[in-house]
Design goal:
CATH class of the largest domain: Alpha Beta
Largest sheet: 10 strands, mixed
CATH topology of the largest domain: Pseudouridine synthase
Radius of gyration: 25 Å
Structural class: alpha+beta
Shape: elongated
Number of helices: 10
CATH superfamily of the largest domain: Pseudouridine synthase
Strand content: 25-35%
Oligomer: single chain
Amino acid sequence: MIIKHIKKADGLGRVDKYILRLLPGLKPGLMHKQFRNKNILLNGHKISGNETVKEGDELKFFFSDDTFEAFSKGISDATTGSDPSDKYIKQGEHAVKMYKSDPDRVKVIYENAHMIILDKPSDMLSQKSDDGDLSLNEWLIGYLIQSGFLKPEDMMHFKPSVLNRLDRNTSGIVLGSKSLLGAGVISKALKERTLNKYYRTIVSGKYVDKDEIYTAYLSKNESTNIVNILTNTVSDDSFSSIPDNYSIIRTGISFVKSVNNSELGDISMLDIDLITGKSHQIRAHLAALGYPILGDTKYGNSRINKKFKALLASPDHVSQFLHAYKVVFNDDTVKELELDKDTYICPLPESWDGLFSEN
């Protein structure tokens, strides 16, 4: 949504003429269509175009930033002769095609008019890196169009999307928007950390440390996409001489269960409360504490992973055992988004079954 406050210097007069001066790329016919669909409001009210704007009035445009910018520069149907919604129709057709290629790959945990909670499988990108990817974002848009909730041309004003990301090989809860309100409320909650995300993982080794919040420092090498951890293995801030390129991280760890697997040795299931949210934080911090995640090819134990891969029926699809399994919203978010409850759980992947059978 774009908000424009009317200034005397902008020139007053009829609102339709004012808008066409402001957005020279917007054809009059398309502008009036937006009036009818309430995608342009004057002081919060539907308009016909005959109204007179006054200094201090407020115009709201329910356009994407890209669309508004293009119209303001005269780049649109005014110069190409095509409806700007054509771009979004093509995007929608592509998303539906990608969705139909594997509609059951993603499970919907919960949805209402404002938001959706998805169960992302491992080996799936949250957002595409090239046009051939079926990312979670493309799946979401295709799903919403296919279900009739969204029309492709609606994306000219608001484009649903995933709002948080998981590493490609991490599975579990990802939050998505279905309305402008949902996008704003969830994005704010993620930024201000007023919602809590919890992870479950299986690690090599028998967990013998305390259940608490562990503190460390993390630095990421952008060229290698690998992070380095400085930790004193205790949960306080007694560090000294920390380089400037390191930032503090805090990871809550709770023991669930452990077993001695005949092939893999001791393995433990842990619950993780992500207090800070840095790239690769859980994987690298657990490895630094001596509990590498099973199947993690970047920070894990290569010897154990090799044994683990040999046990699988489809070893080429081995993935790390890290799963975003729970999200908890605060009361304000529940009320604003009209959620059914404050806590949502995502079941563990079937591939986890059997690892904790007693041997």
